[in-house]
Amino acid sequence: MIKAVVFDFAGTLFGRPTYRWLSPDHLAVLRAPAPYIARMNAAERAVWAARDLTALANRSAYWTLFRLAGLPMTDDVFQRLHDPAFWLPYPDTAQALSVVRPLKVGVLSNISWDIRSVFTRESLSVDAFALSYEIGFSKPSPRAFEAACVRLDLEPSECLYVGDDPASDGAAVQAGMTFARITTAPVGRREPVLLEALASHGIG
Asked: Who has the most CB within 10 Å: 21, 88, 108, 153?
């Protein structure tokens, strides 16, 4: 029996605005980083893999990414990547979190900064956060999902995980959780996929 729903953060509950918040070139690299990651040496790839575990690794990883793309990473660019003002809830986020109740609600995210203030700003209630830079593991490691379940005081088999990435989020199944994959898009362009995903598992 499902007793909790754990959500991914970026691309699932919150997303980027449709208006320009970075230069078109920087946005293009963020949306399709694979060619530049492929050009990283072994040390740079190791830092990229650990980019959500510390703020230092995060800054170094994105500096390398943009350098390989021939773009600068100024302090302003880096701050915008982590500024709560540039993260907005999807139109169905508040309703999705509401229909989950009275089940528990968790958030598991690969992130290098504290996103709790974004939820407070939107008056969204979450029972437990498992953030990679705090727990020391990032998805797709099963230990990241296990940490989220521990914080909810539940077994993985009692939790549904909702996310948009088939690789990192889909690894929830390996940890023993049920997984619901959603499609994603910028805020303002996405259908109410959260409500559909929850309904498909008898929630809401």
From this structure: 108
Structure confidence by residue, pLDDT tens digits, 18-65: 667 778 899 889 889 999 999 999 999 999 999 999 999 999 999 999
Per-residue tokens: 77 = 């660019």
The amino acid sitting at 204 is G
Please tell me the predicted confidence (pLDDT) of residue 86.
84
pLDDT in tens, 107-148: 999 999 999 999 999 999 999 999 999 999 999 999 999 999
Tokens found for residue 10: 């970026």
Per-residue burial over 45-61, b = 16 or more CB atoms within 10 Å of its CB, e = otherwise: eebbebbbbeeebbbbb
The secondary structure of the chain as a DSSP string is ---EEEE-SBTTTEE--SS-SS-HHHHHHHH--HHHHTT--HHHHHHHHTTTT-HHHHHHHHHHHHHHTT----HHHHHHHH-GGG-EE-TTHHHHHHHHTTSEEEEEE--SS--HHHHHHTT---SEEEEHHHHS--TTSHHHHHHHHHHHT--GGGEEEEES-TTTTGGGGGGT-EEEE----STTT--SHHHHHHHTTT--
